[in-house]
TrEMBL record:
It holds the Pfam family Lactamase_B. Residues 22-228 form the Metallo-beta-lactamase domain. The keyword Hydrolase applies. The lineage of its organism: Bacteria, Bacillati, Bacillota, Clostridia, Peptostreptococcales. Gene3D superfamilies: Ribonuclease Z/Hydroxyacylglutathione hydrolase-like, Winged helix-like DNA-binding domain superfamily/Winged helix DNA-binding domain. It comes from Anaerosolibacter carboniphilus. InterPro entries: Metallo-B-lactamas (IPR001279), RibonucZ/Hydroxyglut_hydro (IPR036866), Sec-metab_biosynth-thioest (IPR050662), WH-like_DNA-bd_sf (IPR036388). GO terms for molecular function: hydrolase activity. It comes from the Bacteria. Keywords: Hydrolase. This is Glyoxylase-like metal-dependent hydrolase (Beta-lactamase superfamily II).
Amino acid sequence: MIQVYPNIYQLEIPLPNNPLKAINSYIIVSEDRNLIIDTGFNIEICRDALMKGVQELGIDLKKTNLLITHLHSDHSGLAAALNQEGVKVYAGAIDGNMINEMTKREYWEKFEAYNTLFGLGKDGISFEEHPGYKYSPKKPIDFDSLREGDILDLGEYVFQVVDIPGHTPGHIGLYERKHKLFFGGDHILDKITPNIAFWGFDQDILSVYFNSLKKVYGYDIDYLFTAHRNVLRDHKRRIDELLQHHKKRLDEIMEIIKNERRTVRDIAARMHWDLRYDTWEDFPGPQKWFAAGEAMSHLEHLVSVGAAEKAKENGILYYQQKPSF
């Protein structure tokens, strides 16, 4: 654990058997109330690391609140356990509701339909391999829902809630205008690109993410505290890089579907991934889920802007570049 700003501490929590390796949990200490931001997985090693940080700072959980930036299990995993110990838990209204839905097996059984839809049936993977299923809270949480513009007063810091959907449908961040601080969860990461997955046909989630990036671009930020890897000191540079990355990703997919219609799975298998595997067959099941979800969000964006078309046969989606595009 290190102090990254006065009374703000970064606690690295290990994520075993996960390419991310660790999550940065943050603890903000004040005279009246403390705030923990994100928790790690719902497993003993993460709980031990978090509690060690709490004990090292000598803070009282009864005087400590928890904020979950978004629904992913590496951020929300321990929220239910802390809530049962009397910790008030904040989350955005959308993701908070989804976290509680994820405690039900029926939520995850819907993933079997995506298994077919994406063409992943030939890989023989199951939602039970998904880290969201394995490491998420197992009991509903009595959330205090936060919305855009809500204020969290922590002594010398006054944080404003900012809606930054895209990485998840209800991702939120905290902005401290006076000190130019931003806690952004997985919205903007240094050196790695946040996974932008498919969350349903009711919205073009990639466009939503682009709009959230452009929103934060205009903020005056000196320190952007990320959930993985490094603290960012130049968020505008990184946003430009992320937008360029997704442009290249869209161009890559357009080339893949240029002359032949393909399933989401077969498109994902042909895309470039910064992972240490030689072939698609080598990908672990969870990485196939993430890759297919990211391919799908980009494909639906291409359909939304009129660059691609899709057809469904035997429950499987196929995508191809529009002939006139």
